[in-house]
Each structure stands twice: as C-alpha cells, then as structure tokens.
C-alpha cells in the first residue's frame, strides 16, 4: 500500500502544481476559468485520496503523530508531496 501512496502523492503534487502555476494564472490573467474547472476536480479527488491513504497508513505502519503531521503538512505545500516518498524511506529505515 505504501507504493500506491507514493504514486498518489506524486499525482496529487503534479495536479497541485498544474493548478497553481498554470490554471490559476490563466484564469486571472486571461479571464478563462476553464482550466481551473478542468484541473480542480481531479486535484480534489487526489487530495482526498492522499489524506485517506495517509490515515490508513498511519494505523497500518503505526506512525507517530509527528510523522503523520509532516505527511499531512506536505500535502498542502507546493512541491511538498514530491518529498513524501523520500521522507518515508528515511523515517521507516
């Protein structure tokens, strides 16, 4: 399940970056909200999936509060989810 979580974290991070740095500027600079609508729903679903998987892994792998908190914090920082796999490898080892 950890490998699936790493995949979801990468996809969630990619969708967040596309939303923040491509869709939102197009919306406000060109007045075209279509890209935000197109990327918003997949990003939202990936974010919810990320959090649900993090909760499941918290109990499966007996994460302490610090590890779980950092994994959740990384989900809201731009580029943060790209470091989840590396952080978990270091934390588990």
Care to describe what's here?
The chain has 93 residues and is an all-alpha fold. It contains four helices and no strands. α1 (2-30) packs antiparallel against α2 (34-60) and α2 (34-60) runs antiparallel to α3. It is elongated.
Distance between the termini: 17 Å
Helix content range: over 70%
Average pLDDT score: 92
Form type? elongated
Main sheet specs:
none
Q: Element order, helices and strands?
A: HHHH
Secondary structure: number of strands:
0
The number of helices is 4
Our Rg estimate from Cα atoms comes to 15 Å
What attributes does this structure have?
93 residues; mainly alpha; elongated
Produce a short descriptive summary.
This protein has 93 residues and is mainly alpha-helical.
Secondary-structure blueprint of this entry?
Layout: H1 2-30, H2 34-60, H3 65-74, H4 84-92
């Amino acid at each position: 399940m950890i490998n699936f979580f790493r995949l979801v974290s990468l996809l969630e991070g990619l969708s967040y970056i596309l939303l923040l740095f491509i869709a939102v500027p197009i919306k406000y600079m060109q007045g075209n909200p279509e890209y935000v609508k197109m990327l918003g729903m997949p990003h939202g679903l990936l974010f919810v999936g990320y959090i649900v998987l993090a909760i499941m892994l918290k109990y499966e792998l007996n994460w302490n509060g610090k590890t779980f908190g950092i994994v959740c914090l990384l989900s809201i920082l731009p580029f943060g989810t790209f470091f989840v796999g590396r952080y978990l490898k270091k934390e588990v080892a």
